[in-house]
Amino acid sequence: MRSSLPLKHWLVLANGVGIIDRDYYNNPDNEGHIYFQLINLSPRDILLKKGDKIGQGIFLYYGTVSGDIPIKSERTGGFGSTSK
Q1: For residue 54, what pLDDT band results from cuts at 50, 70 and 90?
Q2: Whose CB has fewer CB within 10 Å in the chain, the N or C terminal residue?
């Protein structure tokens, strides 16, 4: 979330931070779209228009350890812990 969002629009992220798992891309359930779950703290409705900047990201290296055995499970959709 952008730091100006609460000040300008009274909106905050529901969980404070969002983490996108490495297997999120190329998932037929979400087509790679990134969603923001926001809470409106304003007493009125907030209108976000196409092109409004509401988020920013940090990309981190995803490393593995030697001898790591990946779990062979298929993602079935959902958000966060519900995606198993």
Answers
A1: confident
A2: C
Per-residue model confidence as pLDDT tens digits over 6-44: 777 788 888 777 777 766 777 777 776 777 888 899 899
Give me the residues paired with residue 40 across strands.
11
**Domain spans of the chain, in order of start:** 1-65
DSSP-derived secondary structure letter, 82:
G
* CA proximity to 8, closest of 62, 53, 50, 56: 53
The single-letter code of the amino acid at 66 is S
The Cα 30–Cα 68 span in angstroms is 28
Q: Locate tokens 């037929």: which residue? A: 28
Residue 21 in contact with residue 83, Cβ under 8 Å? yes
